[in-house]
Design brief:
The longest helix has 16 residues, at 38-53. The protein has 3 helices and 4 strands, in the order βββαβαα. The chain has a 4-stranded mixed beta sheet, sandwiched between helices. The chain is of the alpha+beta class.
Length: 83
């Protein structure tokens, strides 16, 4: 994966946590600090919708997912890449 992959959509610039650009797969790691509050909540949804409309698949994981269920995260990413 590419870390902090830049995507431009309609004048907006987005940086994806992890991306497989050739597969248009975005993997987002959502921590409470940077995704908390009404403005962040709204921005995250608008960003995800814009990416989906451009053909991206967006997978979202929490810190607990990555730390406590890493094998599940890896398996899901692998499954999407294999499709």
């Amino acid at each position: 994966p590419v870390r902090q992959h830049e995507v431009r959509i309609g004048g907006e610039r987005y940086f994806l946590d992890f991306a497989y650009p050739d597969r248009r797969l975005c993997v987002e790691l959502d921590g409470q600090e940077s995704h908390e509050g009404p403005a962040a909540f709204q921005r995250d949804r608008a960003r995800q919708n814009a990416l989906v409309l451009m053909g991206w698949t967006v997978l979202r994981f929490t810190w607990a997912d990555v730390v406590d269920r890493a094998s599940d995260v890896t398996a899901l990413v692998a499954r999407v890449l294999a499709a």
